Amino acid sequence: MIRNEDYPNIKPTPDSEEPVVVDAELALDTSRDPDSDEYLLIVTGNTQDTEAFSRLFQRYSSKIYAMGMKLTRNEQLSKDLVQEAMLNVWRKARLYDLDRGSAQSWIFTMTRNRCFDMLRKIKRQPNCLTADDIWPRESGAETGFLNEDALHEEKGSLAAEASIIAGYCGKLPKLQQDVIEQIYILDRTHEEAAAILEIPLGTLKSRLRLGISRLKLLIGVDQ
Amino acid sequence: MNTDLDCHPTTEILKGYVQGSLPTGWSVALSAHLELCQNCKQQYQDLESDAAQYWPHDSTDQGTQEFSDLVANIINQPQGDSSDVSVSGESPIAEIHMLDHSFTLPRILAKAANEGLVWKKLSGGINQAKLNIDTETQCEFIYMSPGSQTPMHKHQGNEITLVLDGSFSDASGTYEPADFIVRSGKDEHQPISEEGCLCFAVLDSPLTFTKGIARLFNPVNRYRFRNTIVQKP
Q1: Domain B1-74+96-233 belongs to what architecture?
Q2: Are the C-beta atoms of B113 and B164 separated by less than 8 Å?
Q3: In chain B, positions 56-85, which contact chain A (CB-CB < 8 Å)?
């Protein structure tokens, strides 16, 4: 007889509350260096800086091409991959999250994932699964907490309680405090706050989400 | 989780997963295992971080010139289109019901089973539900009813078995939830399950039964596999 309670360790583990710290500390350190990939990616996302994007393109096209050749062994497909992956970098730059790792890690996983999806499409594999389902990190970064509507809703319910929030804010880690202050106390938009703090929008949102859930715990609001 | 036997993916397999060079069926099994095993998940994250850090350039230097034209095409496209925020709804199927209990699937398997499972009774108390994931592997859920026993068999290619619920044993030992077992073509085994067992299995090629009457089914088995792999979506 199988009883579920005999196997407590096999329930899917929920996404951890804290960001994955792989090379995140390194990324945080270097993000102020105007020549770093992190800085270029942040500027690309926050201000649509085409010069910064061109430099990223120069740095990464040959790496992406190399990965394409390794996985597809086809020159044309590898060139297509450069186009596809860099278009994703351009479109999603604002979703990059500094707290989750280096720009190079972010572009690496994005390239691998786009290559996977591209190959499956060419081989006419069933479209039940995408790379973002299979490799958990990128899917975590692109879905769920980046849902704009959910965050706006939270903003509404929390805005009325700004004074209470301000009182509890001091108990949050500094990075989360900064973000909460910009959004809820100074009433800035996400885009404005990201630009002022010089962090990617993706990082702002993940810190906001972590800050809010911690605040809710402190204040005692049901999740 | 089994700590005596080596029931985790090797570093080589994890590297293949990081690089995206494995057949999809294998990657699905790994994704599910990482959801159940924190140690392997940590190892995967370290390997991915390394792979990104030592990401090689193309040595032929082909293209960087040619590619520079493409920048202009890209920056004319709008940033942050609606596809960035994909709807992250839960898959309708997240649980498998068997006999008197249900089991919550790892996320990737719930997604793969999204279109529904059709269970088929095989001999010896074995139940099978196939998943159409890719054309290089055959992926299936296997549910061994309590007290079931498969015929002695070996494999032509590799077989990955991920234990999800319950347990089974063979000559090498007993396997428990989250165990990731790889069998190669030369292994011959006869799994039995006293308490019942739900597994996710990925096969490179059809099983070759090596004992008794089950042998007669070999050609059929191969034929069925061929049908699976040539099936167009």
Answers
A1: Sandwich (2.60)
A2: no
A3: 56-59, 61-64, 66-68, 70-71, 73-75, 77-81, 84-85
B55/A75 Cβ within 8 A? no
The helix (H) or strand (E) run that includes residue B180 is strand B180-183
Write the single-letter amino acid at A22: V
Task: State residue B193 phi and psi, 5-degree precision.
Answer: -135, 115
pTM of the predicted protein model: 0.77
Report pLDDT digits (tens) over B163-221: 999 999 998 899 999 999 998 877 788 899 999 999 999 998 565 555 555 555 555 56
What gap in Å lies between CA B96 and CA B104, rounded to an integer? Answer: 6
Instruction: Sheet with B180-183: list strands edge to edge.
Output: B120-121, B126-131, B138-144, B197-203, B159-166, B180-183
Q: How far is CA B210 from the centre of its chain?
A: 24
Contact B231/A at CB under 8 A: no
Does residue A62 sit within a domain? yes
Say if A9 is an interface residue toward chain B (CB within 8 Å): yes
pLDDT in tens, B69-105: 788 888 888 887 544 444 444 556 678 877 667 888 9
CB A125 within 8 A of CB A134: no
ipTM beyond cut 0.85: no
Is B107 in CB contact (< 8 Å) with chain A?
Answer: yes
- Tell me how far apart the alpha carbons of residues A23 and A28 are, in angstroms, rounded to a whole number: 9
Looking at the fold, whether A126 and A40 belong to one and the same domain comes out as yes
pLDDT computed for residue A158 by the predictor: 52
Distance CA A59, CA A43 (A): 16
The answer to whether residues A155 and A88 belong to one domain is no
- Residues of the domain holding A196: 145-219
Number of Cβ pairs < 8 A linking chain A and chain B = 206
Contacts of A147 by beta carbon, 8 Å cutoff, 6+ apart:
B85, B88
Whether A120 has a pLDDT exceeding 90, the answer reads: yes
Token pair belonging to A96:
């990059």
